[in-house]
């Protein structure tokens, strides 16, 4: 149970166990709130609520104790966030953040402007480079933070997940793959002309490894460091590419389509910094901002 769920629980109690009214306040559906209660009680093997004719009417003794503790936790959380906002006004300086070009425009077009607007005293320097280059720069302490695609291949790097998605096969609407939405296998791709992001990108090596595991030699037609070029080539030519799923919505369904890959091709973005190295409050603050942005 996280802070959000504690707020669900206390809101139900404070609204006299009226799930309909509580759901409206929390801006969620009533079935969703009911499901949350059941799943939590089942998972923890406890009964927090007294029920009568299928309705919540009161708290059990355990529920009453949990409610008091939940109020204390929420009070501490509010104080923590208040202190953070106060400290934010005093934090200033310059921080260098490395971001691979393949995700910069896709994931950060809202995150970076919001950061700048909320933190005018912090100078954010964006360094664009591929995953391997960013890992090297992080180790040499040429940048403070890097957003890297999992797996992280270098030791001594601390990482936290900010985005979990998948890689997909991308093609135009005239391609035979457009006739179905079922996942594609690597065997399906064996005879296709494939265009890929080049070897400076982590996904390039993941794709090559996946084909090798499937005992298939792919027909690599072209490689580039620009995902928008690959997508544009697929729009007009009988080619396919493999790209992170968040890229696809940037193109109209009238020109490009996608299908998942089986076995599942995970695509995970992590925020990284060096382990066992002193980091000032500025680095910690920036890291916390982006983690909160992507997880909210």
UniProtKB/TrEMBL annotation:
Residues 1-60 form the HTH lysR-type domain. GO terms for molecular function: DNA binding; DNA-binding transcription factor activity. Gene3D superfamilies: 3.40.190.290, Winged helix-like DNA-binding domain superfamily/Winged helix DNA-binding domain (1.10.10.10). It comes from the Bacteria. It holds the Pfam family HTH_1. Keywords: DNA-binding, Transcription, Transcription regulation. One of its GO terms (cellular component) is cytosol. InterPro entries: HTH-type_LysR_regulators, LysR_HTH_N, LysR_subst-bd, WH-like_DNA-bd_sf, WH_DNA-bd_sf. Belongs to the LysR transcriptional regulatory family. This is HTH lysR-type domain-containing protein.
């Amino acid at each position: 149970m996280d802070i959000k769920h504690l707020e669900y629980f206390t809101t139900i109690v404070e609204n006299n166990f009226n799930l309909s009214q509580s759901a409206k306040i929390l801006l969620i559906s009533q079935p969703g709130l009911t499901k949350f209660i059941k799943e939590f009680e089942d998972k923890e093997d406890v009964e927090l609520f007294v029920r009568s004719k299928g309705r919540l009417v009161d708290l059990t003794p355990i529920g009453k104790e949990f409610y008091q503790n939940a109020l204390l936790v929420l009070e501490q959380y509010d104080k923590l966030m208040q202190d953070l906002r106060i400290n934010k006004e005093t934090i200033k300086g310059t921080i260098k953040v490395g971001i691979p070009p393949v995700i910069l425009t896709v994931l950060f077009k809202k995150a970076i402007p919001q950061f700048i607007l909320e933190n005018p005293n912090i100078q954010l320097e964006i360094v664009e480079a591929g995953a391997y280059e960013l890992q090297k720069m992080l180790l040499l302490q040429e940048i403070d933070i890097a957003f890297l695609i999992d797996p992280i291949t270098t030791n001594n790097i601390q990482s936290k997940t900010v985005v979990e998605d998948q890689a997909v096969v991308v093609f135009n609407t005239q391609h035979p793959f457009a006739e179905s939405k079922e996942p594609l296998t690597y065997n399906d791709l064996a005879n296709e002309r494939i265009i890929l992001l080049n070897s400076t990108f982590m996904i390039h090596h993941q794709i090559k490894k996946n084909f090798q595991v499937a005992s298939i030699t792919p027909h690599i037609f072209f490689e580039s460091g620009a995902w928008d070029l690959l997508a544009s080539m697929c729009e007009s030519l009988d080619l396919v590419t493999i790209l992170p799923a968040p890229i696809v919505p940037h193109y109209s369904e009238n020109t490009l389509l996608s299908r998942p890959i089986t076995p599942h091709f995970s695509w995970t973005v992590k925020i990284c910094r060096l382990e066992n190295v002193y980091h000032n409050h500025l680095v910690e603050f920036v890291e916390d901002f982006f983690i909160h942005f992507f997880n909210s």
